Amino acid sequence: MKTIVIISAICVCVSAMTHEELKSGIHTLQSICMPETGATEQIINEIYDGNINVDDENVQSYVECMMKKFNIVDDNGNFNEEVTRDVVSAILDENEN
Predict the structure, then answer these.
(1) CA distance linking residue 10 with residue 30, whole number of Å
(2) How many domains in the chain?
(3) Domain of 71: which CATH number?
(4) Where is 92: in which H helix or E strand?
(5) What are phi and psi of 13, to 5 degrees?
(6) What confidence tens digit (pLDDT) does each residue in 40-88 have?
(7) pTM for the model
(8) Is the dihedral of CA 51, 71, 77, 86 positive or negative?
């Protein structure tokens, strides 16, 4: 369950995006959120591996940044299920390659 939540956090606003555009967007937003939050490459790799230190402030900030940038949640904290499904599908597809 924790992995699903984290995967959901690493998402992009998809509207009419293809999987390739979505994957590119994920990498672009990672490079934006990393310096904004103090997250390191090691933290990002651990998140993808499912090893998440929920007590780490950098992890929390990074996940929040990605969720907001990807429109997974709005400024009021409302969850966007459709975007999450599209993003999770793209991430799982990327991990299979």
Answers:
(1) 8
(2) 1
(3) 1.10.238.20
(4) helix 81-96
(5) -65, 120
(6) 999 988 988 888 888 999 999 998 898 888 888 888 888 888 888 877 7
(7) 0.66
(8) negative
